[in-house]
Amino acid sequence: MRNVNVVLIFGSAPDVTSITHWDLSFFTSCVAINNAWQVTPEWDYLIFPEDFPIDRRPQLPVGTHQKIITAKEFVHHQNHFGGFIYAGGTMAFTAGYWALGALKPDIIAYVGCDMVYTAHNGKSSHFYGSGTADPLRNDITLQSLEAKSNRLMALANKQNCAVVNMSSLSETRLTFPRSAPLDFQQSFNHAKLLKEQNQAVDLQKLSMALEAEKRLGYIVPSGRYWEGIQSFDPVQLRMIDDIWMETFKKNMHAVLALDHEGLCR
């Protein structure tokens, strides 16, 4: 019997539709971001920001096993892990930190969150057509998506949680090790993956980054960092990003040679 707490987080990139062919009952929890709840009815949590349009939300009440996660829930957890300024103000990372705090997973698997947008008629491409490339906006907290990705993976590692990217896209802004859809029960070894991430993390750089964040002291309890954006120094934040970029060895970007069959029906 599987005793590993595996959380799937899925966004709106075009390849997210592949999960309709997976056996999602394997995952302990499935977390949809923003519009991604439309991909499958088999989600357990839907997380979205305060400004997510009402007409894009599912009709209430949702299924008895389903729960809507809003700022009332995720700001608390985001603050526990340092806050939006350091974590990055986009829902792919917010969902990860919320999951770390609320669901206490052993593994977080991402799909549809690569934050790479192919131009299509002048707009960004999502599974539902065209949308806004939110992570690519001019935002002081998103100067380096790769640094923010490393940060999430490092803090997850401190909680004995491994993070993988199950996207099928050739390009990604996430730094998590890649994995094709796989059979966790038969071929996925949580202890082995966690050990590999433990060996890859530079604990000295990790401590340096967290200490630099603490010294700078950019904490916004409400989560609405944009209301005081003028008081934050992008140069200082870029210097911290540079440390996070050095926190993992480059071999963490390699694709894991794991079974391709498992989750596919």
Our measurement of the CA-to-CA distance between the termini, rounded to an integer number of angstroms, reads 19 Å
What kind of assembly state do the chains in view correspond to? single chain
Helix content: 25-40%
Q: What structural class do you assign from the helix and strand content?
A: alpha/beta
Ranges where pLDDT stays below 50 over 5 or more residues in a row are 254-265
Specify the number of helices: 8
Brief rundown of the structure:
By secondary structure, this protein is of the alpha/beta class. 31% of the residues lie in helices and 12% in strands. The strands form 2 sheets. It has a 6-stranded parallel sheet. Strands 6-7 form a two-stranded antiparallel sheet.
Q: Would you give an account of this structure?
A:
- A hairpin with a 2-residue loop joins strand 6 and strand 7.
- Helix content is 31%, strand content 12%.
- By secondary structure, it is an alpha/beta fold.
- A six-stranded parallel beta sheet has the order 4-3-2-1-5-8. The chain has a two-stranded antiparallel sheet with strand order 6-7.
Features:
265 residues, alpha/beta, six-stranded parallel beta sheet, two-stranded antiparallel ribbon, 8 strands, globular
